[in-house]
Amino acid sequence: MSDFLDWIAPVLSFVAVIGAALLAYKGSKDTDSTDRLSKAAGLYSDYADKMEKRVAAVEKKNEELETNQDEMNDRLERSEKDAEIYKKEAGDYRQLILEVIQWITELIDWELREYAGPQPRVTLNMVLTHLTNFMKSRNFDTPDEASRGENDADRRSSKTT
C-alpha cells in the first residue's frame, strides 16, 4: 500500500496543481474581462459626458437661432408693412404730381393763348392750396416740418392774391 500511496500522491499533486492552475487562469481571465469591461464602461461614460455637453451646446445654439429667426421674422413683417405704407404713399404722391402737372399744363396753355378762350378750371392759388393741404395731411417726423411747409404756402398764396 505504501507503493500505491507513493504512486498516487504525485498524481493527485499533479491533478491539484493543474486544477489550481485552471482556477487561477479562469480567475485571471475573469479579472481581465472585468478590467476590460470596467475600462470600456469608463470610456463609454466619458463619451456619454462629452456627447451630453455637445447636445447641450447644440440645443443652446438652436435656441439662439430660433430667437434670431423670430427677431428676423418680426423685422421682416415690419419691413413688409412699411413697404406697403411706402407703396401707398408713393401712389398718393404720384397721383398728386399727375394732378398738378395737368393743372399747370392747363394754366400754361391759357397763358400761351394770351388768356383768351375758356379760363382753366383751376388757378395757381388752387394748385398751391391743394399741395399745401396734401402736405398737411401727411404724417411728418417733426411738427416743424409741417409748420414750415404751411408758412411757406401761406406766404406764397398771399402774394398771388
Task: Describe the protein in words.
The chain is mainly α and 161 residues long. The protein has one domain (2-122). The protein has three helices and no strands.
Précis, in short:
The protein is mainly α and 161 residues long.
The domain tally reads 1
Q: Could you name the ranges where pLDDT drops below 50 across 5 or more consecutive residues?
A: none
Distance between the termini: 157 Å
Q: What value does the average pLDDT take?
A: 82
Summed up, the helix count is 3
Q: Sum up the overall morphology in one term.
A: rod-shaped
Q: Please estimate the helix content.
A: over 70%
**What structural class results from the helix and strand content?**
mainly alpha
Succession of helices and strands? HHH
The major pleated sheet works out as:
none
Strand element count: 0
Architecture blueprint of SSEs:
Blueprint: H1 2-112, H2 124-137, H3 143-160
Helix pairs in contact: 1-2, 2-3
Features of the shown structure:
single chain; 161 residues; mainly alpha; 3 helices; 89% helix
